[in-house]
Amino acid sequence: MDKAFLKKMKEYLLEQRKTLLASLADQSEDMRGLIKTVESGDEADVAADVIDRTLLTALGTQDANRLQQIDSALDRINQGTYGRCVKCGKEIPQERLEVLPYALMCINCASAQERKNR
């Protein structure tokens, strides 16, 4: 794989990682605020806060999963295996990596996996 492309992707992944970490930190602060509100609120406030807390938790889980995928992609860059399909070993097209920089599989293998999981 082209070294310039790898460098570009590594920089992009590091920036995405930084953004996600900041987002997770902000969500933790929001969660603390919700907990304080629940302790002093009425029943309607408590119900609304439960919904807010559930939403923040779900978003936090999605961000945490994406962070794990980004870290895995950065590890593959460092190991020299980035851009190779983990299933068939073929090179993943750069266009796919630009859209989904932490892709593990080529389009054919990813499609087959999706069909299998249905």
TrEMBL record:
Assigned keywords, A-Z: Metal-binding, Zinc, Zinc-finger
One family name in Pfam for this protein: zf-dskA_traR
ZnF start-end (dksA C4-type): 85-109
Annotated source species: Treponema bryantii
Residue spans crossing the bilayer: none
Domain Zinc finger DksA/TraR C4-type: 80-115
SUPFAM superfamilies: DnaK suppressor protein DksA, alpha-hairpin domain, Glucocorticoid receptor-like (DNA-binding domain)
Gene3D superfamilies: DksA, coiled-coil domain
PROSITE patterns in alphabetical order: ZF_DKSA_2 (PS51128)
Keyword Zinc-finger in record: yes
Keyword Cell membrane: no
Source species taxonomy: Bacteria, Pseudomonadati, Spirochaetota, Spirochaetia, Spirochaetales
InterPro entries: DnaK_N, Znf_DskA_TraR
GO molecular-function terms, A-Z: zinc ion binding
Protein name, as recorded: Transcriptional regulator, TraR/DksA family
